[in-house]
Amino acid sequence: MKELIIATKNVGKVKEFQELFHKYDIQVRSLHDLEEPIGDIEETGRTFEENALIKAEAISNQLNTPVLADDSGLEIDALDGRPGIYSARYAGEEKNDQKNLEKVLAELEGVAPENRSARFVCSIAIIQPGQKSLVKRGTCEGSIGLKPKGENGFGYDPIFIPDGYDRSMAELKPEEKNTISHRRNAILKVEDWLKELE
C-alpha cells in the first residue's frame, strides 16, 4: 500500500482524509504517527494556498518524503470573508471550536437567513522531493444556520448548511459529508497525481 504523510495533528481531519484516500489504496499517516516529533509550523501566508504550501514544504524538507498539507476554513460573505484563514483560532489563540462557533453566530446576529451565504474552502498542497509542487482548491457552498445542530464532524460543521440540504454538515453521516465536502472537491482536483503516487 502506498503511503502519504498528511501535515496535520487534527484528528477529525485525519479521519476524513483516511476515508477519502481509501479508494486510492493510499495509507494516510498524520504528524502524530511519526517517530520524530514535528514542531508547530508558523503559517504566515495571506491565503489558504500559501499556508498549505508553507506547511507541506517545511515537513517534506524535514522528512524527504511526499507530504500533503491542507489549509481550510470558512468564508462568510456577510463578514467580508471572515473568519477565512483565521478560522481555527477565530475566537482566540487557543483553538476552541465552540468559542469559534459562538463568535460567528454573535457576529451574524440579526442577519437574515438569505444573507448568510458562506463556503468551506480547502486548499491542498502536495510536495514531492525534487518535483514541482501541486496546489489545488476545493469549496463547498452553503449558508450559516441560526444555531448549532448535529453531533458529527468538527469545527464549524454544526452551523454550516450545505446548498441543497436542510441539515447542517454535522447532521450528515460521514459518508454523506464526504461526497460534497470541500476536502473531497480539492482531492478530486489532485486525483491524477494520486493515481500516479508510488
* Side-by-side strand order of the widest sheet: 2-1-3-4-5-6
List SSEs in N-to-C order. Answer: EHEHEHEEEHHH
Rg from Cα: 17 Å
How much helix is in the residues?
25-40%
| Low-pLDDT segments | none
Mean pLDDT: 91
What is the CATH level 1 assignment? Alpha Beta
Q: What profile does the largest beta sheet have?
A: 6 strands, mixed
* Number of self-contained structural domains: 1
In short:
InterPro entries: dITP/XTP_pyrophosphatase (IPR020922), ITPase-like_fam (IPR029001), RdgB/HAM1 (IPR002637). The chain contains 6 helices and 6 strands, in the order βαβαβαβββααα.
Describe this entry's structure for a reader.
The protein is an alpha/beta fold and 198 residues long. The protein has helices at 11-21, 48-63, 97-107, 174-180, 182-189, 191-196, and strands at 2-6, 26-30, 67-76, 117-127, 134-144, 160-162. It has one domain (2-196): Maf protein (Alpha-Beta Complex), CATH 3.90.950.10. The chain contains six helices and six strands. A six-stranded mixed beta sheet has the order 2-1-3-4-5-6. The protein is globular, with a radius of gyration of 17 Å. The model has no long low-confidence stretch (mean pLDDT 91).
